[in-house]
Design a protein that fits this description.
alpha+beta, two-stranded antiparallel ribbon, disordered N terminus
Length: 417
């Protein structure tokens, strides 16, 4: 069945997206793992994005301008892998440690992630708010003396970053210099923009009454006290007990990851240690466009929600998600390169090891896809429906590349604990 790499799941927190930063120095490997997963997903399920709204930022070598491919399916892209790969890393007899020990850096970053996730911090109330501070606030908005729908908090916001929230002009600046207090509010007399996008609010005067409860200063593993960890669970008797539990949880999760996604880990190592001279342009463009359009489609689908929260363009959406549009396109470029490298290596190993998919493997593969449960939501009644939807060419392409990953896994060695 198709594998989809998931970031490590800990018994307290399901980590997703940018939270993979907990791996610190392992981020290159995590990026490759995600690229393997994306490629596996696209082998069967991806469709060519639309030709509208192509990214226009300048591309860098080894590919030129992204977004130029008119190819509709991955399996239609033809190239000779020998023109693009300099060195293919060893792919037989690879060792994989199924029971790795988490590093101190991983433990530290997981601890600090959990503290942030559960809003466990130093609550500062004896200084003024500065730009960049994370604060806990509550507020209520009034127009013409009346509280208005959508203009108030129902519970305290604990992750309000001053200067990074895309609120209307004057809201965040008006909190700079305020000293946290439970007894008084900061009154902000503001005006909605004339082009706010809603006739009810365009150009209207508004009063926000804001209570700043505290400034949240993040904790580090070294600064933890027993009182801090007991906010996670009153059962802890020491900081060391909590850290030991995190260590064991990480170890268990890392083992389970390798059990579930062994192929991904092994192939990520092959990609990391191979050398490439160039990329097939159409293939790189295909992956690049696919990744960009995933986010474009998300923004388009939920644009009303984003605009309600002050995010009025795709660039603002990228800034909120990634810090800046430049950082987003850098990540897309790296992911597209990794996915292209995976495709090239699959083609190379297929040729070198004579792993061409047989008709029997194709038939068996279709049956396995249908019985996996991954496609139940499609409502296929039989194999013919499945083949008609995905096409035989696309299914063969997916099964061919999965055969390569299976070959690598079958020829690997599990490192003794």
């Amino acid at each position: 069945m198709l594998e989809f790499f998931q970031p490590v799941v800990y018994h307290r927190i399901v980590m997703t997206g940018k939270d993979a930063d907990l791996f610190g120095g392992q981020m290159k490997k995590i990026s490759l793992l995600l690229a393997v997963a994306i490629a596996l997903t696209m082998f069967l399920c991806a469709c060519k994005p639309t030709d509208t709204d192509k990214p226009t930022e300048p591309a860098t070598d080894p590919a030129t301008e992204p977004g130029s491919s008119a190819v509709q399916n991955l399996y239609d892209i033809k190239y000779d892998y020998k023109d693009h790969v300099k060195t293919i890393a060893d792919y037989k007899g690879l060792e994989i440690d199924m029971n790795p020990e988490p590093t101190e850096e991983q433990i530290r970053e997981q601890v600090e992630y959990e503290l942030q996730y559960y809003d466990i911090c130093r609550k500062i109330t004896d200084r003024a708010v500065k730009e960049g501070d994370t604060i806990c606030v509550e507020f209520t908005g009034y127009m013409n003396g009346e509280k208005f729908e959508g203009g108030y908090t129902t519970t305290p916001m604990t992750n309000f970053v001053v200067g990074g929230m895309n609120y209307i002009d004057g809201f965040e600046d008006g909190l700079i210099g305020a000293v946290p207090s439970e007894d008084k509010t900061v009154d902000l007399y503001l005006k909605f923009p004339e082009d706010y996008g809603d006739e009810e609010f365009n150009g209207k005067d508004v009063l926000f009454k804001v209570t700043v409860h505290y400034i949240a200063e993040p904790l580090t593993m070294d600064s933890l006290t027993l009182e801090d960890v007991r906010q996670l669970s009153e059962d802890y008797t020491s900081v060391e007990e909590y850290i030991d539990e995190v260590r064991e949880s990480l170890k268990l999760s890392m083992h389970q990851d390798r059990v579930n996604y062994k192929r991904n880990y092994l192939f990520a190592e092959i990609v990391e240690n191979s050398e490439f001279s160039s990329y097939p342009q159409e293939l790189y463009d295909y992956y690049y466009d696919y990744l960009v359009d995933r986010y474009r489609n998300d923004y388009a689908t939920y644009s009303v929600y984003y605009q309600y929260n002050g995010i009025n363009s795709f660039d603002e959406y990228l800034a909120a998600q990634f810090g800046s549009s430049e950082k987003f396109y850098e990540q897309v470029k790296e992911s597209a390169e990794n996915s292209t490298e995976i495709d090239i290596l699959c083609a190379a190993i297929t040729d070198i090891e004579h792993l061409e998919l047989t008709d029997e493997e194709y038939i068996s593969g279709v049956e396995n896809y249908l019985s996996s449960g991954d496609f139940d939501s499609y409502g296929f009644e039989n194999a013919e429906d499945f083949i008609e939807y995905f096409t035989e060419a696309q299914i063969r392409y997916a099964l061919q590349n999965e055969k390569v990953l299976d070959f690598v896994a079958e020829n690997s060695v599990e490192k003794a604990s």
